[in-house]
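seq as requested:
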Amino acid sequence: MRLCPSAENDGPRPGRVAIEVDVRPEATTILVRGELDLVTMPALVAPLAQVALDKPRRLVFDLAGTPFLDCGSARLIAGSGQWLRDGGRPVIRRPGPGVRRVLGLTGLDACCEIEELTVGKGCVRISEQSGAGR
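struct tokens:
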């Protein structure tokens, strides 16, 4: 499902965001391309409303294509753990430096699991980190 599609395949235009939702039995993944701020955050609210109804086991936000998010968007993502079964925490996959900075400065990284993409010899691994226990 694609919400708020962009006009170009290379990514959203400035001031736009493209959001895709992939629902599978093991996890719901929300792919965000573009900046999340006061103007674009409403595009994220609709898929999260469905998440609240579905109550998936795991919720993953793939933010590799998100160079910036504001504090309100960070709170929305971090707070989405309340809708997960078994009290899980949302996963933020491949956050860029701008996203990591906002999460760290606000302390919201402690409410999420962070998956970093790391490249090793002959393989690509995703390592999990958490802000918990800081």
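The longest strand covers residues 113-120.
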